[in-house]
Amino acid sequence: MKRWAGSALWMSARAKNALRRRARVAVVSGLAFLAALVTFVLIPRRASNVATAVEARIPDRPDSQPTLNARIGALATIATSDSTLGLTRRQAAQALARSVDTLPFYLIPKRDSLIARVAFLGRLIERGQSTPLPSSYRALGSSPELRAAPIVQSLLDSLGVIERERETFGALGGADPLAIALSARSNSIGRSLVAIAVSRRNELRAELQPLLPPRAAPVAATPVADTMVVHQQRNEAIGILNAANTALTGIRARNREIDGLSAQARQIANVDAPPWAMLASALVIALALGFAVSLLAEIRNPHIADVREAEQTAGTRVLTVVDPYEQIGERTRRQADVAAPPIIDVISDTYRTLYLHLSSLDAPVGSVTITGDDMDIASAVAVNVAAIAAYEARSTLVIDGDPETCGVAGALRLLPDPGLTAVLAGTVVLSDAIVFTTIGRDQMLAVLPSGKRAGQPTAQNVAKMRADLDRVSSRYDMIVLAAPLAQTKQGVASIVPSTDVILCARMARTPLRELSNAVETLRGAGMRVHGLVLWNIEPPQLRTRDELLAAAKRPPREAELEPVG
Questions:
Q1: In terms of C-beta distances under 8 Å and separation of at least 24 residues, what long-range contacts does 316-319 make, across chains too?
Q2: Which fold has domain 307-553?
Q3: Phi-psi region of 394 (alpha: psi -120 to 50; beta: other; left: phi over 0)
Q4: 3-state SS track over 462-473
Q5: 17 class by beta-carbon count within 10 Å (0-12 exposed, 13-18 middle, 19+ buried)
Q6: Per-residue confidence (pLDDT) for residue 558, from 0 to 100
Q7: Cα 412 from Cα 108, distance rounded (Å)
Q8: 3-class DSSP assignment, residue 282
Q9: Is the pLDDT of residue 416 over 90?
Q10: 242 to each of 84, 254, 256, how far by Cα in Å?
Q11: Which residues contact 138 (CB under 8 A, 6 or more apart)?
């Protein structure tokens, strides 16, 4: 069983057993269905009241239109002021430029180009000085101002060689003398490139100097408009804009709060549903909960799910499985078949397979004990095995060893007294306690009922009973004993005729742990377990002792007095 834990087959078997527990699933599902319906009825009513209370607390939304109008007006004033100020600045700058710059127009592009080249080279030099890394030096040497010089290309090649040699040391080469030397060499090459770049920048500056305008006193430009009034209007508009933005922020926060209250009211009120939806939801929840509870109980205490699981748990094979069988109409025409006990099944191959296993061994079994955790099932199996043996023209004795249930007498509809307990008490001899009943048309079956529970038999009576069984065993081809599991052992205080045992278990009802313990107990007591019989139908409805005694006191009906034939 431990080998299967957690596997898909094991979980599939547990789910199958959980579905077989229809009563448990029905009870849990019914209770969950009622609880869900009550919940679905009460929650919408309470939610409606709560939603009404929440809606009553929702305030009115503030009017933001005046604030928006003020903000739009302020933005328009600011835009107009900025446009006016920009136009005034451009006019003043143009007048100043016209009064200062006297360079011919065809030299202005050259001057602008030189200024841009000097600025670009200056930025690369500053980067090389502030960030002395090979990447900075390579960018400086690859610039358009330096890459044409042969010495620069030679320095870049040397720098590349040094970088490749430096990369072989990795991140941990900082303390290596050779790595330090390479770093120093790289910095030296970088400083040389910086020096060449500084020299080139000086050359460009010398070329730019004649193109710059002479230093002279700036010419004052007359503004085309009075910007003081414009600035004042702009500042007032900025103040109005800031106040409007603050007011709109408060309005938005207020609206978000109102929206939250409205959403809360809608969410609370949105729990109602049509009746069919509530019924369907309650049914789905009930079925899911019922199956989950049944599956959890099955996982905590797994039961037999199929033949393979039973065989692997018990360590022995399954001889037969008692499944539901179909009644054949032709076999119910005779009065003998109608009057026969309904528990007897001599038509299907279920019990015939079990009988053939016992009779076809190298050493045919003459006596066998049938036991299990449910004595009604064990008694039904014992009676059917004995009935099959009787149909095979073998004289058979079936013994009921459980005075608590009187299963054999209940299955065959016989009086339970006197029986085995009376023989063990010494009040009745064995031959007088054995009764005969007809199985089918003319097959006879000898039965030793259980009798009613008495005190503990003496060792002398038990020994006499064992001797009587040994004596009468020569008259019968097969002896079938139905006994509880606790009494299935051979010893001085036991009447078990042989060590041959067949263990009965009920599908989806017998726990795997109990099945394994039962097999180990029987083998520990020296019993030979031939195999298992799995009961896969509803438990047999056998008559109790009181029902048998009451039926014996009633006068027979006319149909029962007619001759069988």
A1: 316/519, 316/529, 316/530, 316/531, 316/532, 317/531, 317/532, 318/531, 318/532, 318/533, 318/534, 319/353, 319/354, 319/357, 319/502, 319/530, 319/531, 319/532, 319/533
A2: Rossmann fold (3.40.50)
A3: beta
A4: HHHHHHHHHHHH
A5: buried
A6: 45
A7: 128
A8: helix
A9: no
A10: 22, 18, 21
A11: 156, 159, 160
Does the N-terminal peptide bond of residue 134 adopt cis geometry, omega within 30 degrees of 0? no
pLDDT band at 318 (very low <50, low <70, confident <90, very high): very high
Task: State which H helix or E strand residue 52 sits in.
Answer: helix 22-56
Partners of 303 in beta bridges: 511
pLDDT band at 467 (very low <50, low <70, confident <90, very high): confident
Q: Which H or E run includes 267?
A: helix 227-269
Q: What is the pLDDT of residue 174?
A: 55
Rounded to the nearest 10°, the torsion over CA 101, 105, 109, 112 is 0
pLDDT at 2 over 50: no
**In sequence order, which residues have a C-beta less than 8 Å from that of residue 51 and are 6 or more positions away?**
265, 266, 268, 269
Instruction: Grade residue 519 by pLDDT with cuts at 50, 70 and 90.
Output: very high
Strand partners, 506: 535
Tell me the sheet residues that pair with 398: 447, 480
pLDDT at 563: 40
Q: Which residue type occupies 105?
A: F
User: DSSP of 82-117, one letter per residue?
Assistant: HHHHHHHHHHHHHHHHHHH--S-TTTHHHHHHHHHH
For the chain, the structural domain boundaries read 8-60+259-300, 103-211, 307-553
Ranges 14-28, 46-60, 263-277, most confident: 14-28
- Could you tell me the strand order of the sheet in which 500-506 lies? 318-322, 528-535, 500-506, 367-372, 478-482, 396-400, 443-448, 435-439
Long-range contacts of residues 261-267, Cβ cutoff 8 Å, at least 24 apart: 261/54, 261/55, 261/57, 261/58, 262/55, 262/58, 264/54, 265/51, 265/54, 265/55, 265/58, 266/51
* Rounded Cα distance, 145 and 124, in Å: 11
